[in-house]
């Protein structure tokens, strides 16, 4: 299962499947309203079958029900799309279009009476959606029932269909990985579009060790390529898939679809990203969207970018939805939360993201960053070479909610270090702006008694200052060192809320935060002076995760802060001497960063070609 075989050359079908009409999700935790909304009467929603009782109406103006026409018009060469349905019974089907403001208009309609498995085709032009808008269909019944099945949106095919390979990168998340593999194996139609599924296992607890692996492997058959390798982080795992695919004969026109191991996988994403990539005018990175696993109706972000000048990832593109309930309505406009306005992404996260092999050939492989910002760096490098990133609405998977992950963790090291590398490579990298941002961050960590997080930041700056040679081993040593470093700081340890060390639960009042200050800089200076002088407002108290801002926590001598995961608490205790030592070390490192920024930028840019080369990854993989 670890060997290569040629990717199959796909002859063009009569019509290219762009997306299917689905009426329910891949899991019971997912609301059917994300797929089909019953607007009147009673309807039974199954995965690929919809039964409307008499006097019912169902709208597919939903997250998974819409065809993202504005993105197809902007990026693709398809002038029209055909909707086909198999109908049994009596009723009406209408194809509806919207504009950038979400205003609907009917573009085609068909009624049937007493139909028996009747194939109905309706065509819509993709011609009035440049700034925004989508297509969907509505269906309704009168006195009789109507069954809707085999719903397909199709476009004219290319001469040859590009094959797709899926790459799943995993590290000691065996059950999660098996669930993702099983989801892909469970749906034959998307699976038929995939020539290979690479499972790159970097963990000490192998996925193949479970009895269930053999069962799922048998379902995937000869499509499965199971690869074991040392832990080189997400960058090393996903890049291994690119490396293997581009080794295969005929793979110069292949698509590689990255898939996180811990997502709730909607197999339909294979259909939609593959079709889109097959019809773009020029190769583009096609990103899937992330929905929240703990809150499955919510979209993380419609499209995002990174501010490389301030090292800020995850910035919401103007006009894009963010943390939005896709089954809800906008409070201001009263309209449903649909993604009508087209927005252009700066990059796409690798929870699910398709990369055409032509882009790899043109710009090289990802940087061996180990973890964090590897997807951002690759997106901006592609952009610098003329390859856009499209975050495609309706192509989604569910991933753990980001705001339920605590910022004070070992991965913050890679976030900071790799942000500086990306900024040096793809921005002006202005020393004054970068260093001001770093100094402000450090000050807030220190006053909030996050000494381990401050040490994490300083380690990131220190290693960045070592230059590109620090990436020689792909991040293995850095990952070990940062965990060891953080273990020296007690407040990085999470405790059960019922067993806070050294503090009886009865002596722990919950202290709510006052309103946020209007001017942060003067307040920060005031908090720093308070701590230097040994002053505090509260001796000890509990602080909720939502109130854990630096300007509140800094008022305590000891603060028991709820972890963002809601799985426990962390105990932050004031340590004036430690804060002074870390502050002095930070001032030294930030000054060096300021003085050496232009030199380091030149070094990282000069090393880019070697670091992203196939030869370098071959060495890292010890092949």
From TrEMBL:
Pfam family, one: Glyco_tranf_2_3
Keyword Cytoplasm applies: no
Ranges of residues in domain Galactofuranosyltransferase-2 C-terminal: 435-622
Pathway the protein contributes to: Cell wall biogenesis; cell wall polysaccharide biosynthesis
Molecular function as annotated in GO: glycosyltransferase activity
InterPro entries: GlfT2_C, GlfT2_N, Nucleotide-diphossugar_trans
All residue ranges annotated as the Galactofuranosyltransferase GlfT2 N-terminal domain in the record: 42-154
UniProt keywords, alphabetically: Glycosyltransferase, Transferase
SUPFAM superfamilies referenced in this protein's UniProt entry, alphabetically: Nucleotide-diphospho-sugar transferases (SSF53448)
Plastid found in the keyword field: no
Family: Belongs to the glycosyltransferase 2 family.
PANTHER family assigned to the protein according to its UniProt record, in alphabetical order: GALACTOFURANOSYLTRANSFERASE GLFT2, RHAMNOSYLTRANSFERASE WBBL
Name under which the protein is recorded: Glycosyltransferase family 2 protein
Species the sequence originates in: Saccharothrix syringae
């Amino acid at each position: 299962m670890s060997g290569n075989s040629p990717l199959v050359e796909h002859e063009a079908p009569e019509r290219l499947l762009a997306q299917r009409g689905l009426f329910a999700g891949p899991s019971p935790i997912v609301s059917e309203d994300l797929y089909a909304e019953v607007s009147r009467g009673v309807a039974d929603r199954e995965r690929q079958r919809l039964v409307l009782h008499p006097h019912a109406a169902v709208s597919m103006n939903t997250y998974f029900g819409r065809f993202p026409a504005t993105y197809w018009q902007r990026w693709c060469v398809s002038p029209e799309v055909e909707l086909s349905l198999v109908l049994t019974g009596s009723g009406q089907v209408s194809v509806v279009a919207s504009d950038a403001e979400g205003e609907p208009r009917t573009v085609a309609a068909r009624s049937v009476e007493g139909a028996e498995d009747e194939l109905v085709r309706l065509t819509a032009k993709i011609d009035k959606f440049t700034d925004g808008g989508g297509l969907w269909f509505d269906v309704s019944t009168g006195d009789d029932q109507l069954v809707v099945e085999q719903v397909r949106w199709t476009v004219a095919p290319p001469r040859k269909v590009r094959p797709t390979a899926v790459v799943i990168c995993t590290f000691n998340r065996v059950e999660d990985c098996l669930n993702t593999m099983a989801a892909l194996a469970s749906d034959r139609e998307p699976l038929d579009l995939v020539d290979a599924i690479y499972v790159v296992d970097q963990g000490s607890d192998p996925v193949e060790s479970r009895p269930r692996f053999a069962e799922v492997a048998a379902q995937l058959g000869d499509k499965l390529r199971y690869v074991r390798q040392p832990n080189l982080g997400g960058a090393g795992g996903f890049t291994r898939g690119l490396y293997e695919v581009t080794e295969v004969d005929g793979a110069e026109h292949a698509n590689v679809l990255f898939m996180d191991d811990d997502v709730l996988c909607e197999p339909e994403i294979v259909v939609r990203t593959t079709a889109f990539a097959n019809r773009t005018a020029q190769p583009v990175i096609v990103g899937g969207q992330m929905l929240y696993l703990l809150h499955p109706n919510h979209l993380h972000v419609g499209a995002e970018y990174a501010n490389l000048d301030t090292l800020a990832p995850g910035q919401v593109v103007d006009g894009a939805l963010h943390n939005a309930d896709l089954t809800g309505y906008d409070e201001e406009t009263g309209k449903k939360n649909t993604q009508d306005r087209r927005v252009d992404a700066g990059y796409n996260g690798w929870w699910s993201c398709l990369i055409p092999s032509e882009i790899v050939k043109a710009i090289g492989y990802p940087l061996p960053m180990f973890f964090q910002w590897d997807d951002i760096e690759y997106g901006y490098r592609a952009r610098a070479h003329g390859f856009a990133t499209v975050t495609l609405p309706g192509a989604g998977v569910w991933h753990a909610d980001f705001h339920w992950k605590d910022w004070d963790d070992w991965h913050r090291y890679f976030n900071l270090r790799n942000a500086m590398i990306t900024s040096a490579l793809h921005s002006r990298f202005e020393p004054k702006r970068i260093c001001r941002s770093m100094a402000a961050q450090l000050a807030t960590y220190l006053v909030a008694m996050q000494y381990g997080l401050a040490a994490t930041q300083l380690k990131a700056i220190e290693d960045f200052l070592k230059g590109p040679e620090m990436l020689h081993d792909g991040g293995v040593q850095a990952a070990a060192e940062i965990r060891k470093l953080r273990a020296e700081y007690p407040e990085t340890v999470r405790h059960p809320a019922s067993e806070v060390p050294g503090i009886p639960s009865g002596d722990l009042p919950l202290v709510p935060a006052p309103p946020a200050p209007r001017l942060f800089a003067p307040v920060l200076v005031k908090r720093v002076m308070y701590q230097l002088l040994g002053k505090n407002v509260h001796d000890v108290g509990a602080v909720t995760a939502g109130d854990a801002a630096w300007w509140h926590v800094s008022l305590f001598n000891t603060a028991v802060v709820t972890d963002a995961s809601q799985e426990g608490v962390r105990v932050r205790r004031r340590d004036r001497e430690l804060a002074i030592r870390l502050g002095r070390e930070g001032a030294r490192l930030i000054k060096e960063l300021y003085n050496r920024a232009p030199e380091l930028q030149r070094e990282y840019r000069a090393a880019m070609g070697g670091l992203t080369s196939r030869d370098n990854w071959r060495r890292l993989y010890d092949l």
